Amino acid sequence: MALKQQPYGHLPDGRKTDLYILTNVNDVEVSATNYGGIITSIKTPDQNGVFKNIVLGLGSFREYLKNDPYLGALVGRVSNRISNARFDLDNKTYKLAKNEGENHLHGGLVGFEKILWEVEVVDDQSISLSYVSPDGEEGYPGNLHVSVTYTLDNDNKLTLDFGAMTDQATPISFTSHGYFNLTGDPSKNIHDHQLKLNADSYTPTDQELIPTGAVDSVEDTPLDFREFKSIGKDIGQTKLGFDNNFVLNKSEGELALAAEVEEPQSGRRMNVYTSMPCIQLYTGNYLDNSLQSPEGIPFRKHCAFCLEPQHYPDAPNRPEFPSGILRPGKNYRAKIVYEFL
Questions:
Q1: What is the rounded distance in angstroms from the CA atom of residue 224 to the CA atom of residue 142?
Q2: SS3 string of 262-294?
Q3: Which is the catalytic residue, given 263, 302, 308, 311?
Q4: Other C-beta atoms within 10 Å of 95: how many?
Q5: 227 is catalytic
């Protein structure tokens, strides 16, 4: 059980970044940097006790500076998409940065994934990141104070504990964008991973992946993961792969089991718990071999999956959905827990 800190690289303006390595009594190891809150590595054992990294990570800090797919990063102020890069709030229209066609994705051109966060070492098993997102950043209103604490405990649970306060009403929906492959080998696709989601419904989208406002049943669709099913079983019925938001079967704010994943070859398993109302399943549909692992393995389509707990996508423009607005005087709290088995 220990925490190591080591220099990681420098931003173009000269500011330095560090890498923080958390380990527990079982030798599970999580590495994260204060640039973007990026989780660069999670090393867990397979059924034979062989440790491998089960998330996609890059070989150097310099490569993360051009990290387009948000590998392992914190996402905010609002994860997923906001249609037409605008929303109305309290009788005022806010125009956001456009970074996916006419839409706003994952916080904009310079979201939380490109921020150098302040770091406080809490103890041997925890670090806390903080950032003040200024009023008007990427078009959002209010000075938003954000914190995220990473804790690796001796039960092999990695917890991300989010907190936020604002001086103006603003939408928020934070997430962590880890790309997982439980084989520990990104040259293999994730089609044989067995997935179960605690979700009876999902939010349908249009061609630009913007929610229509409906909430439909997963029954008789490729999105039915209510029982364990291989990710590859119905992926051929999708356009590129899965990139869908599921509405979890739980009460608002309740920390509950959202997803279970098993990888038959390695025997590795992972559970995801969250207090957030939704989770996005994404199967690396746009990975195109342009990025590679430290060992030189190219990251190709479907070599990893993401399970991103979040608020309802495009909620500021969808009165049918819970609003996701944080107002002054309110303390926002949310959790994501990854359990490695």
A1: 39
A2: ECCCCCCEEEEEECCCEEEEECCCCCEEEEECC
A3: 308
A4: 11
A5: no
Per annotation, catalytic residue among 177, 193, 302, 311: 177
The Cα–Cα gap between 1 and 239 comes to: 45
User: Is residue 320 annotated as a catalytic residue, yes or no?
Assistant: no
pLDDT in tens, 273-302: 999 999 999 999 999 999 999 999 999 999
Q: Residue 124: which CATH number?
A: 2.70.98.10
Which residue stretches of the chain have pLDDT < 70? 1, 67
Q: What is the pLDDT of residue 66?
A: 83
The confidence score (pLDDT) of residue 68 equals 79
Residue 325 burial (CB count, 10 A): 17
Question: Which is nearest to 329 in space by CA: 145, 194, 111?
Answer: 145
pLDDT for res 124: 87
Return the structure tokens found at 130: 């903080």
Helix runs in the chain, H state only:
61-64
Range of the domain at 46: 2-340
Neighbours of 142 (CB within 10 A): 22
CB atoms closer than 10 angstroms to residue 271? 17
Instruction: Answer whether 253's CB lies under 8 Å from 275's CB.
Output: yes
Q: What is residue 315's three-state secondary structure?
A: helix
Helical spans, DSSP H, in 142-182: none
The number of domains in the chain is 1
Query: Which residues, in sequence order, are bridge partners of residue 130?
Result: 118, 147
b/e code 174-186 from CB counts within 10 Å (16+ = b): bbbbbbbbbbbbb
Q: CA dihedral defined by 266, 267, 272, 273, rounded to 10 degrees?
A: -160
